[in-house]
Structures are given as structure tokens and as C-alpha cells.
Amino acid sequence: MPHIRFHDLRHSAATNMHQLTGDFFTVSQILGHSLKGAGIQLGISSNLDTVTAQYVEVRLERKLLVLDVYHRAVLETKA
User: Fold this and answer.
1) How far apart are CA 70 and CA 19, in angstroms?
2) What is the pTM of this model?
3) Residue 78 covered by a domain
4) Which among 5, 1, 32, 28 has a CA at the least distance from the CA of 17?
């Protein structure tokens, strides 16, 4: 499948994680996006101070929860 790039797989995983959990901010943190980028995507602000005031750094436990939900869903589709 030469027309599929690694980045396409990354987008697919992000979309699936978001659909399963509804947690856009944690998914963006898992992907390594900045607070500013997440704020722009959420339509909050491009001002980093405003975004930081709205959200705090996602804790590792929350990231693990989102990834666990995603991995369980992936494994269920293979069974």
C-alpha cells in the first residue's frame, strides 16, 4: 500500500482514540501536540496563556486510560 504514509496511520489512531474517549485534549497530548496547538484546534485561543488557564498538563494516568481504551478496542476488532 504505497499510498499510505505513517502520518496517515497516526491520524487514524488519533481519530479512533478521540471517538472512543471524547477526550481531544488528552489525545493531542499523547501525540505530542503543544498546548497552543490544542487551543487552536479546540477554538479556544492561539494565546498560550489563555490555553494554559483553560487546561492543565494532562496527567500520565489520564494518558494511560485513553491508550488502554484504544488498545482494548483494537484487540476486540482483531478477535
Assistant:
1) 9
2) 0.58
3) no
4) 28
